[in-house]
Amino acid sequence: MERSLLARIMDFLVLAAFLGIAGFLAFFFTALSGGDRFYWWLIAVITVAAVLFVGIGIFAKVRERLLFKTAIGLLIASGLTVAGYEGFQYYEASIPVVSEQDFDLQAYKPFREGTKAKALERPASLSLKRDLPRLDGATALYPLYAAFAQAVYPKSDYDLYYSEVMANTTPDAYQNLIDGKVDIIFAAGPSDEQLEAAKEKGVELKLTPIGREAFVFFVNAANPVKGLTTEQIRDVYAGRITDWAEVGGKPGPIRAFQRPKNSGSQTMLEKIMGSEPPMPAPEEDIATGMGGIISKTADYKNYENAIGYSFLYFATEMVQNGNIRLLEIDGVMPDKDAIRNRTYPFAAEFYAVTAGSDNPNVGRFLEWIVSAEGQSLVEKTGYIPIADGK
After folding, report:
1. Could you tell me which residue ranges the PBP domain spans (predicted)?
2. Is it the case that residue 93 has pLDDT exceeding 70?
3. pTM score of the predicted model
4. Which residues share a beta bridge with 301?
5. What residues contact residue 282 under an 8 Å CB cut-off, 6+ apart?
6. DSSP secondary structure of 58-79
7. Which CATH number applies to 213-347: 3.40.50.720, 3.40.190.10, 3.40.50.300, 3.40.630.40?
8. 3-state helix, strand, coil in the chain (%, to 5)
């Protein structure tokens, strides 16, 4: 005897509520554990499909055999979807990444046994025993100012994040300097936002040039494009040039990576762009400890259609990724000779930046850095001494 419509509705509501609660719990715990958004949506789709499946089974006159086959088909489709997603994730993970995690800064710590930080051939003319200037700076410049500290500071274990010789990246270093937590930072010139932050705090930033470096663009080594013009760089990062075929490459969309806001390299890109801001950067979702999702600027991932940028020393000495190739700019390859003679268009000074510290040794230390001894460490490390860049 066929059950009444009311009874079937009640059965559907009970089962739908059960499936909805189960789906919500699965969704919640997946999100809480930091699971990929893909699985969030998969759980939601499966939950909705299950509810629809139950509804069809209760209200429509469908053979049980057909329902069983449909359920098996849905399970197989879900399994294939997961397999395809995980396969793509594995492929993505196999593509080399250029980021600040590609190397170990510990290898450049001053006084560490076997340190990569360069050393003078004889003791430095300056030796500081107390009132050590607190140092911070850009990741790519840590090998240089670690060498300065090794030459002048007393032997000690200088922690990378909690000592007189730290490496907190350009944005954090500028903030630490503005807040008075450090005395000198080593970085590219400040961004407009960093200058404004200093002004609001009543702090005047003083930039002492200590060397020169090239700002470089790089692509996958398999990319046939050997170089771009300055105007083409601007057009790529403004979104006007979007396909490699437009600049002599193989047809395919250009994936233009960027660096985080207020980093030294991002500030350099913005200076190249002039009054025109770069287009929005590729982002990636990062799961936080409580399962939330934040978005951050994606690190350069070496797809065959990718383009990225950094500074020459970072890209060639610290990362040493053989899968990327530097681009010529306006027909000039970025190398030390081109930096010295200023034929490479994106060569610029980097600085020791101060903000009115009352530490009596800040001035002495800066004078030593621009002396022949300090500048010899600039050259030994792999940068161009400021005297050679004049």
Report:
1. 135-373
2. no
3. 0.73
4. 97
5. 255, 256, 257, 258, 297, 298
6. HHS---HHHHHHHHHHHHHHHH
7. 3.40.190.10
8. 45, 15, 40
